[in-house]
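Ligand: glycine. Inputs:
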Amino acid sequence: MSASNVDSSSAVETVTIALGERSYSIHIGSGLLRSPESFADAPRSSRAVIVSNTTVAPLYAQTLQDALRGRYAQVELIALPDGESHKDWATLNLIFDDLLAGGADRKTVLYALGGGVVGDMTGFAAASYMRGVPFVQVPTTLLAQVDSSVGGKTGINHPRGKNMIGAFYQPVCVIADLETLNTLPMRELRAGLAEVIKYGPIADAGFLGWVEANLDALLARDASALRHAVRRSCEIKAAVVGQDEREAGLRAILNFGHTFGHAIEAGLGYGEWLHGEAVGCGMVMAAETSARLGLLHGRDAERLIRLIERAGLPVKGPDLGADRYLELMRLDKKAEAGEIKFVLLDAIGHSVVRSVPDATLCQVLASRCT
Ligand code: NAD
Ligand code: GLY
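Predicted complex:
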């Protein structure tokens, strides 16, 4: 893989999230971080604070600081410890400590520079610091560009359950610079592909076919393939979030594979498997559940599982024991009165939300765990 693959065009594409007065744009392009104009949607103020981590800050914080200097008299940096295991209260509190120590006020604009962990924590900090300050998402992983930076879910993990503490809080804009994907480790690129793959089965059979045909190009970081994958993923997510911002119903489909996946992440301990790996394996389990319930043709389930495997994602889950999986899944945010709700498929491109008998879940776990 050449490190310069992701940089073929200067064109900027924009996807809009339509949420009335909270509407905003996702700008997608190469080299956006270097350009002050990329940040024209962000409010002007005397101060901006970039929240990043110890891996991403050395790569991109200076470039972002330089781009922001014309908009703010002061641009500060907070570099958090890196990793899913740090998506917790203690690390969140580091952001508040620094904001307070530095005199950040209600007009201070936060910039989340990093992957989904930094984005979710910065968004939650922005939602709650002085009861809410504006924030900008600057996603630097494929997963964050196609999913976590978009739609306003923010928060942290609890040892008992994934993303259990948080808030819906929308950014003022999202700046997805495709060039940043050049430095992403291969394992992280594959993890991001899990969320790209997700959009086809839940909402767009044509996009699933496109991902199947272009998977090798995506894995090779072909610039135009990545650009299309990010844009189409954001379009699908924007359409869903625009109809159901706070997950009263439809938005749950974006959690396809996540009920199983979150159980894997919490059960193994956060950071053992990457979020995207757990979601990939969770989609395998959800596809098999759909087939066992007679909702989805077995060959369609197999088609999806083959693609997840080709992407280099795990198709066998860790053996936590069925009881532990069920215990963890009962904590899922979609559960009602202890009854777990699963996003399942009744066709490629169409999802449904259903409860599933424990006996079926045990069969799936027995066949899909090593
Ligand atoms: P991550 O934030 O941990 O980033 C992955 C790794 O890549 C980290 O080590 C990070 O430092 C590094 N990194 C980031 N950008 C880099 C770059 N350009 N070059 C080199 N290294 C880079 O993980 P992620 O996969 O981006 O996000 C996962 C998180 O997102 C999970 O906590 C998940 O719950 C959350 N998520 C949230 C939503 C949402 O709607 N809010 C949706 C999906 C996932
Ligand atoms: N990633 C799931 C959602 O944004 O709703």
